Amino acid sequence: MTTEEITQKVNLALEEIRPFLHKDGGDISLVSIINDRIVQVQLHGNCVYCTVNQMTLKTGVEMTIKRYVPQIDSVQQVH
């Protein structure tokens, strides 16, 4: 998969996740993809201060992105 294809698929995964975050007053954006293996995202709105945002990041965001792009090793939150 090319870097462009990975970026497109990660964005598709984020679009799938976004409605759930919007319900809680939050959002997410793609910051970067490092070496086609590590996705960096930024949480916005209520998601920034949510006490379970790390669980959301791992169980929701990371799992969804890996469904679209299995070669991704991890998803990291940046501020």
Keywords, separated by commas or semicolons:
single chain, 79 residues, three-stranded mixed sheet, 3 helices
Unreliable segments (pLDDT under 50, ≥5 consecutive)? none
> What form results from the Cα inertia axes?
globular
Q: What portion of residues belong to β-strands? A: 25-35%
Q: Overall mean pLDDT score?
A: 90
Terminal CA distance reads 28 Å
Measured as a percent range, the helix fraction is 40-55%
Structural class: alpha+beta
Strands ordered across the widest β-sheet = 1-2-3
Largest sheet: 3 strands, mixed
Number of helices: 3
What does this 3D model show about the protein?
There is one protein chain. By secondary structure, this protein is an alpha+beta fold. It has three helices and three strands. A three-stranded mixed sheet has the order 1-2-3. Helix 1 packs across helix 3 (53-68). The longest helix has 21 residues, at 3-23. The mean pLDDT is 90.
Strand-helix topology:
Blueprint: H1 3-23, E1 26-34, E2 38-45, H2 46-49, H3 53-68, E3 74-77
Parallel strand pairs: 2-3
Antiparallel strand pairs: 1-2
Helix pairs in contact: 1-3
How would you concisely characterize the structure shown here?
This protein has 79 residues and is of the alpha+beta class. The model has no long low-confidence stretch (mean pLDDT 90).
